[in-house]
């Protein structure tokens, strides 16, 4: 399980510049595979061999002209709730502003690691100017320049040193599928879970100090054994109940990272919107299995909207990863809940499946022979061998004489052919082309 690091601070101090620097190297790897990055405010970073997730809280409100102090305050509170460590960025050019003082006041009460980053320290004189930030009462600070990267190494050394050790559930200890139920507020997550497990476990409980832990609870229902990931962020009815993009991401990121399959609940009466999409791509980016449940289907007039139309609309929104199960359910009338669980288990199994190398070659090489990668600059590209990698999530490698000439459309073609033959519904797939 990854630690979650939140970057907070008022607008224009340089949060996103710093964030981009943190995730740069890794994002480049992800991008070359999937071709798309959806959420530019969430990513993974690594320092001294320690991997962690980073969220730029400011990224979610950027663009709005007038950002109220209250808005920043809520963001900081939520970050305090959900993150394992916080990097508070301030701007040496501007000095301490009243808003900085506000934020510092909130952070001084927190026992989690807080790192104060004084940004835009581009030269020696500014090192002097930075001294005033002692007045924030947060102790030691780090002078950085997000733009050039200077000073960030020291900050990161400290960060990975203070990040807490998180419990790691190994596959041997716990071989059951781990599911999480995610979605925007009021989609019906708690109702669904209660209907499924038949007890009021997921009612409002606000247990101090449990925020950090994702808890797996084992269930045996309808003949299926599974774990439900019950993070505080989901369990607790938010103090901040605002229906904003940022909140649903912040609240679900830990559960998603900790699960095998994410059950994304959407409210049928609202449709598949920006936030749903954000959570969807969060799961996809983490290479998790996904099942979409369109909940409250009991409220929809069936003659105005058919499941087929509704489904088509959602598939359009999740392009190009459209091979995902979509079910129409009602937590209230308990319609198709068993089917939902069955599907989640199926996705889990599909994600784990291993295709024997001989079978994979036999099938795929015949297709490739029939439809080889298009020749480029007069050169013919040959793929002679392929296999599934022994990784926890499906990854396939194709060995070619000129791997750099195999472009994304052909990779998508290969992916589609794999999906046609083997069931990977709800499972993100990686395709790599390597030199043979
Ligand atoms: P955010 O609103 O906090 O995410 O801030 P941005 O990352 O968008 O940066 C705001 C402005 O500060 C931009 O014009 C950046 O180019 C500038 N900036 C960011 N980091 C540095 C730095 O290290 N030095 C200087 N001089 N400017 C910076
Ligand atoms: P959460 O915030 O995602 O956990 O959502 P809740 O489970 O608290 O549900 C929000 C509201 O939607 C509650 O008033 C539920 O009674 C209602 N609700 C949940 N599922 C359904 C459903 O399938 N049909 C109808 N009609 N209402 C539902």
TrEMBL record:
The keyword Repeat applies. This is GTPase Der. Keywords: GTP-binding, Nucleotide-binding, Repeat, Ribosome biogenesis. Associates with the 50S ribosomal subunit. Gene3D superfamilies: 3.30.300.20, P-loop containing nucleotide triphosphate hydrolases. Residues 3-167, 177-352 form the EngA-type G domain. GTPase that plays an essential role in the late steps of ribosome biogenesis. Pfam families: KH_dom-like, MMR_HSR1. GTP 1 binds at residues 9-16, 56-60, 119-122. It comes from the Bacteria. GTP 2 binds at residues 183-190, 230-234, 295-298. Transmembrane segments: none annotated. Belongs to the TRAFAC class TrmE-Era-EngA-EngB-Septin-like GTPase superfamily. EngA (Der) GTPase family. The keyword GTP-binding applies.
């Amino acid at each position: 399980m990854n630690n979650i690091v939140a970057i907070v601070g008022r607008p224009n101090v340089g949060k996103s510049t710093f964030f981009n620097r943190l995730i740069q190297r890794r994002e480049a790897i992800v991008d070359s595979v999937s071709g798309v990055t959806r959420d530019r405010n969430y990513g993974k970073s690594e320092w001294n061999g320690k991997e962690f997730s980073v969220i730029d809280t400011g990224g979610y409100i950027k663009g709005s002209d007038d950002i109220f102090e209250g808005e920043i305050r809520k963001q900081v509170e939520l970050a305090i709730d959900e993150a394992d460590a916080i990097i508070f960025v301030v701007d040496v050019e501007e000095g301490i502003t009243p808003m900085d003082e506000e934020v510092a006041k909130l952070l001084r009460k927190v026992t989690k690691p807080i790192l104060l980053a004084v940004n835009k320290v581009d030269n020696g004189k500014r090192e002097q100017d930075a001294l005033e930030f002692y007045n924030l009462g947060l102790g030691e600070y780090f002078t950085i320049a997000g733009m050039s990267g200077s000073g960030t190494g020291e900050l990161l050394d400290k960060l990975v040193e203070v990040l807490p050790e998180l419990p790691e559930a190994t596959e041997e200890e716990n071989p059951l599928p781990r599911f999480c139920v995610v979605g925007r507020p009021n989609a019906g997550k708690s109702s669904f879970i209660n209907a499924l497990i038949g007890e009021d476990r997921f009612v409002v409980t606000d247990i101090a100090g449990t925020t950090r832990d994702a808890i797996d609870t084992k269930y045996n229902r309808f003949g299926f054994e599974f774990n439900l990931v019950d993070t505080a962020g989901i369990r607790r009815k938010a103090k901040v109940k605002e229906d904003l993009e940022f909140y649903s991401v912040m609240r679900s990121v830990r559960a998603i990272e900790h699960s095998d399959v994410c059950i994304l609940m959407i409210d049928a009466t609202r449709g598949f919107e920006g936030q749903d999409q954000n959570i969807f791509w969060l799961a996809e980016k983490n290479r998790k299995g996904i099942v979409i449940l369109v909940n409250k289907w009991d409220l929809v007039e069936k003659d105005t909207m058919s499941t087929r139309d509704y489904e088509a609309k959602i598939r359009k929104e999740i392009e190009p990863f459209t091979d995902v199960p979509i079910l129409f359910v009602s937590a209230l009338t308990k319609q198709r809940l068993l089917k939902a669980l069955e599907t989640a288990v199926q996705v889990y199994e599909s994600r784990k499946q291993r295709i024997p190398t001989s079978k994979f070659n036999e099938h795929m090489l015949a297709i490739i022979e029939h439809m080889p990668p298009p020749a480029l600059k007069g050169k013919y590209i040959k793929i002679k061998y392929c296999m599934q990698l022994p990784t926890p999530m499906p990854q396939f490698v194709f060995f070619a004489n000129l791997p750099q000439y195999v472009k994304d459309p052909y990779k998508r073609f290969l992916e589609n052919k794999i999906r046609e033959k083997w069931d990977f519904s709800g499972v993100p797939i990686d395709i790599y082309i390597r030199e043979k």
